Amino acid sequence: MSNELTPAPAAFDAGYLATAELDARFYLDQVMAMVGVDGLVEALAQPFLLAKVDQHAAAVRQSITAAGKAIDSISLAGYARSVLAVHQRHGRPLPTPDSIDWSDADWTVLRLVSVCSLADAADAF
After folding, report:
1. Coil, strand or helix: which one is 105?
2. Do 102 and 46 form a contact (C-beta atoms < 8 A)?
3. What is the DSSP letter of 72?
4. Which of 2, 50, 82, 109 is at a distance of 20 to 30 A from 103, taking alpha carbons?
């Protein structure tokens, strides 16, 4: 073992960022297919649901920016992954479009639809 510092890489690895970006966009696309498309269509048709999605979107935006991150595909995908991980840890099945009662959508579904709304606004797909 040595007390010498490990030398820093000579150049920034832009390939890593490109891969992370592509992975994040792919993940957001999966979330959009799982609940986003149907949720956003329903929200546009039901003002009370749109208001709930907007409130959740504001909370997501605040959480991400409070962490010093930009609202982009990487941060939104990370947020969505965290929401789904907690959901699964509680032993609840993943939502599917045909299993959701949009008039009484649960917190997880609203949070994921709001992530999709933010991703759409940020052109993160």
Report:
1. coil
2. yes
3. S
4. 82
pLDDT per residue as tens digits for the range 10-58: 555 666 668 999 999 999 999 999 999 999 999 999 999 999 999 999 9
Angle (deg, nearest 10), helices 37-45 and 47-66: 130
Q: Using CA atoms, how far apart are residues 65 and 69, in angstroms rounded to an integer?
A: 5
* pLDDT value of residue 6: 45
SS3 at position 111: helix
Q: Which long-range contacts (CB under 8 A, 24 or more apart) does 90-97 make?
A: 94/34, 95/34, 95/35, 96/34, 97/34, 97/35, 97/37, 97/38
Tokens of residue 47, six digits: 């003002």
Per the CB < 8 A criterion, the answer to whether 52 and 110 are in contact is yes
The arithmetic mean of pLDDT across residues 102-123, rounded, is: 96
